[in-house]
Design a protein that fits this description.
- The protein is an alpha+beta fold and 567 residues long.
- Helices cover 36% and strands 17% of the residues.
- The chain has helices spanning 26-38, 63-73, 76-82, 122-136, 184-188, 216-219, 291-301, 305-308, 354-378, 391-420, 430-454, 469-495, 519-545; strands at 16-22, 44-47, 84-85, 89-93, 105-107, 118-119, 139-141, 144-150, 156-162, 167-177, 192-194, 200-208, 252-257, 260-266, 272-279, 313-314, 320-322, 327-329, 333-334, 337-339, 345-346.
- Strands 1, 2, 7, 8, 9, 10, 19 and 20 form an eight-stranded mixed sheet that branches. Strands 4, 5, 12, 13, 14, 15, 16 and 17 form an eight-stranded mixed sheet that branches.
- The radius of gyration is 25 Å and the shape is globular.
- The two termini are 45 Å apart.
- The relative contact order is 0.15.
Length: 567
């Protein structure tokens, strides 16, 4: 983002700011840094209720957010030295009958991806970005609680109290809400609404003592031994899993069943984030006790996870849960305020889109505020930046806010329908889930990753946000394909073939790359889809000719003989 040198503005009082940002996490600190770089004379105040940054979910980057952090924020050195590289996405499937890792179907790349992505210890990352914002000239107040907001234009007032209860009132032209799920602005303006047609829940914790998927117990050791005292080693003297150039441990590992999936993400501190997400219309979390107890019982019994978590334990007091994940604000911007990241919307953690949304919404909001402050600063010789001014300038601002609001509103609904509605119906079948993964990711590379790697200004446009024919066509195509896979899932369940390749299937996944090479995994996914369509048709024809009761569809949603309760 280019730096401008505006004319000097008239002096401001100590409690008068150009921008106040509520929330000093990833979005808030990033916005403060970018604003100070783009408009060095602007006064930015960061407010956060915590004394230091805290642990939070959102520990895996994908290609877009990695590009934002390395090439827009400029924190590539921190990512390379203080965080872990990410070796893509890896998926594991089973028939839930006490299988071992080497028996399960495994889907994932054989080599590390060419574009850098990272596994993040968010408390460390966010604290680094906060320090960067302060170095850039932003003022930080924490811990502090916002007590009231007197909305107005062109100035508004915010009252806050510090840890000692001391009150302070500040004024500003712009309020940026980076408060996450607290949704400071949307809740006060009654704009927040739950997305009821997509009902995933989540519970997660950071664990200590998780076994290494690249350790000798699973892939053998240089001396040929396959034994390890920490886990069930299987056939001693031989590797249980085939060697890969990619490191399994550094991937975001997904353990999947119909209606649910678990993530496993390594952190640089040595701990491992383990989460469970489930669609409450398809799956009830089994077990006894509260949701945290049932979460531990569930992950300790799941094939694959059972071996990796043997002897491990969650960090005391670090288990967190959300009952209903997706939500959105009905507005994302207006005169005087804009919403960043989770303060405006959240979809689903599958495919790790949260930091992409955070990066894009922050970049776009900073552009709106930057341009407005520059227009004000250019008039500083005749009027103070905070005063009402040129009607043409106000019209330009209103047009920018309207465009921002419409793009993010359009993006939310289209992204939800194209990628997530009904997705959990596929997760218990290795072929269906792999097909969706290949097609979704290839289109992500072609339509989202490619543009932001060609030019960073593409960060201003959320996925499917532009009202263009090609964007509409892509959205409708993805939505149709997703619905077709869901239809196949129901057909396969009726025919008794759902999950038929959940054991021992290890297809070679084509590496995802920018440009035309992204068409290769797309073609691979379409080939799998056509094969499943043909198989379903053949099974249907044979079934009509040979009357017989089809076997019950494989249930891979939970271990056998488990009682179930709604979380």
């Amino acid at each position: 983002m280019p730096t401008h040198s505006p004319p000097p503005a008239p002096p401001q009082s100590r409690d008068d700011y150009d921008v106040v940002i509520v929330g000093a996490g990833f979005c808030g600190a990033s916005a403060a840094t970018l604003l100070r770089r783009a408009v060095p004379g602007c006064r930015v105040l960061l407010i956060d209720r915590n004394r230091t940054t805290t642990h939070k979910v959102g520990e895996a980057t994908v290609e877009v957010s990695a590009r934002f952090m390395t090439d827009v924020l400029g924190i590539g050195e921190h990512l390379r030295t203080c965080q872990l590289p990410k070796h893509g996405l890896r998926f594991w499937f089973t028939d839930a009958r006490g299988r071992r890792l080497e028996e399960m179907s495994e889907i994932g790349p054989a080599a590390a991806p060419p574009l850098s992505t990272f596994q993040l210890d968010r408390s460390v990352l966010d604290e680094h970005i906060v320090s960067q914002a302060v170095e850039a000239g932003a003022e930080l107040v924490r811990p502090a609680t916002v007590r009231s907001w007197d909305e107005g234009w062109p100035r508004q007032a915010i009252s806050l109290s510090d840890a000692d209860g001391q009150m302070r009132t500040v004024t500003c032209r712009w309020l940026l809400d980076a408060s996450g799920r607290a949704a400071f602005v949307a809740r006060r303006k009654r704009l927040l609404e739950r997305t009821d047609d997509h009902p995933p829940n989540a519970v997660w914790a950071r664990w200590e003592g998780v076994h290494d998927l690249d350790g000798p117990a699973f892939v053998g050791s240089p001396d040929g031994s396959g034994a390890d005292s920490g886990a069930d080693s299987g056939r001693e003297g031989s590797p249980r899993l085939r060697p890969l150039r990619a490191r399994r441990r550094l991937a975001t590992n997904h353990f999947c069943g119909r209606g649910w999936w678990c993530w496993m993400i390594p952190l640089a501190c040595g701990r491992t984030s383990v989460g469970l997400v489930w669609d409450s219309t398809l799956f009830d979390l089994p077990g006894e006790g509260d949701v945290q107890q049932r979460y531990q019982q569930f992950v300790r019994r799941q094939d694959g996870l059972r071996e990796l978590l043997e002897g491990a334990h969650p960090v005391e007091g670090d288990v967190m849960a959300y009952r209903h994940l997706p939500y959105r604000s009905r507005r994302f911007a207006d005169r005087g305020w804009l919403l960043l990241g989770d303060a405006g919307m959240f979809l689903d953690p599958f495919y790790s889109p949260g930091l992409d949304q955070a990066s894009i919404s922050t970049f776009s909001a900073v552009q709106v505020v930057r341009d407005d402050l520059m227009r004000q600063a250019s008039r500083a010789g005749s009027a103070a930046p905070g005063n009402d001014g040129d009607p043409a300038s106000e019209e330009e601002l209103d047009a920018a806010l309207t465009s921002h609001d419409r793009r993010f509103d359009r993006s939310y609904r289209r992204w939800l329908e194209a990628l997530y509605l009904g997705k959990y119906r596929l997760m218990g079948d290795a072929e269906l889930a792999t097909t969706a993964f290949l097609v979704d990711t290839a289109l992500y590379y072609l339509g989202v990753v490619g543009p932001v790697y060609r030019h960073v200004d593409a960060f201003a446009n959320p996925v499917f946000g532009l009202d263009l024919p090609q964007s509409t066509w892509s959205y409708r195509s993805m939505r149709w394909f997703s619905r077709r896979l869901q239809r196949l899932a129901e057909v396969r369940r009726r025919q008794g073939t759902y999950g038929r390749r959940n054991l021992g299937w290890r297809p070679r996944v084509v590496t995802f790359r920018l440009g035309p090479p992204a068409l290769l995994p797309l073609a691979q996914g379409i080939a799998y889809w056509m094969r499943m369509e043909g198989s379903a048709l053949l099974h249907s024809v044979v079934g009509r000719r040979r009357p017989a009761t089809a076997p019950a569809a494989t249930d891979v949603s939970s271990p056998p003989d488990e009682s179930r309760r709604v979380a």
